[in-house]
Design a protein that fits this description.
single chain, mainly alpha, 0% strand, elongated
């Protein structure tokens, strides 16, 4: 006599091949969808190092992004101002070419005018001679040596 299990297995044995085909088709479709949606990536050392550096940097910058944007704008403005000023400085430097002799004459004229305004300089007083160091100890206590 056949057991109920053997009877059920015999009845469904025909459907097993159809179920296997359906299962293989579902797995194939699922694999194709996964392949299209997630491209295969090969992680190199550089990409891994960049991620390790970029994530903490993002955590530093993202909460204060308005502040960082203002600072960046200020630096751009300073850089633009600096670049415009260097061109003017170069043109002024090219226009004013004074010889060293002219600079020396201007210095002497300035010294003469300063002496005229201030008046004659008083004679220098003689310097005080250096003091000799005091050979005496600073305190009354004298060191004693004990020998055993």
């Amino acid at each position: 006599m056949k057991t109920p299990r053997e009877i059920l297995l015999a009845r469904h044995q025909v459907a097993e091949t159809k179920l296997d085909q359906i299962r293989h088709e579902a797995v194939r479709v699922s694999a194709e969808v996964n392949r299209r949606s997630l491209p295969v990536r090969e992680f190199t050392f550089a990409a891994t190092a960049f991620r390790a550096f970029a994530i903490p940097l993002r955590e530093l910058i993202w909460p204060c992004r308005r502040t960082w944007a203002v600072l960046a704008a200020v630096w751009v403005a300073i850089l633009a101002f600096n670049l415009t000023q260097t061109e003017r400085i170069q043109t002024v430097a090219e226009k004013s070419t004074t010889s060293p002799a002219g600079i020396h004459l201007a210095f002497l004229e300035r010294q003469r005018l300063l002496a005229e305004i201030i008046g004659p300089t008083p004679p220098a007083s003689p310097a005080e001679p250096p003091r000799r160091p005091n050979p005496q100890p600073r305190s009354e206590r004298r060191p004693t040596l004990m020998m055993a």
